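Appendix B. Raw example, untouched.
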Amino acid sequence: MKFIKPKTHKKCPRCGNKCLINQTRCEECDLLFSRLEFASNKAAKKKLKKFDSDFVIYTTQYPKDVNWYKLMAMTFFTGIFGGHYYYTGKYIKGLIMTLCFIYALFCTIFNDVLWSSMESFLYIPIGLEGIAWIVSLIYVCCKKYKVPVIVEMPDENATEILDKETEKKVKEFKDEVKEIKKQNKEKKKELNQDLKEENQVEDKGQK
């Protein structure tokens, strides 16, 4: 009987580097994977509208402002003319799908007139559009469809967006740092005391 091997690696959404599944930071681009929790698709769409792709990364880990059910519905009902691409901010792909859809409508309406004068290969874009729609639908169903996002860290006054688990980890980390500082202070005090005693012994020996 064959057992499914557990997943041991994952790809960094920014640079594509292969990382261990339990790795918290990418060694190549230094991306903290925990920061993807604060990713925003809306911020990415604003930059992509200006044709600015700096700091935009593509990931299958959907942010809070992208609803998978809505994305699924958009792909199924409006994907044929690129509705799901517009929803996630992939405007160039959406525009190509829209133009292909308009071209398909034009060819369908004037099919009798065009068929005699047009070569059959000119209908290839219609077939490619249908294939692209089906592939997108499969990717969305399997949650493999990549969404553009920008990682946004909360400011100091926005701690309300942190969940309880994150707050607990931050508190534990601060307590740990305090404990280390306390231990270092005690060790330094003991070291100074030992040095003082050694100096006193040397002084007595010289006398």
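End of appendix B.
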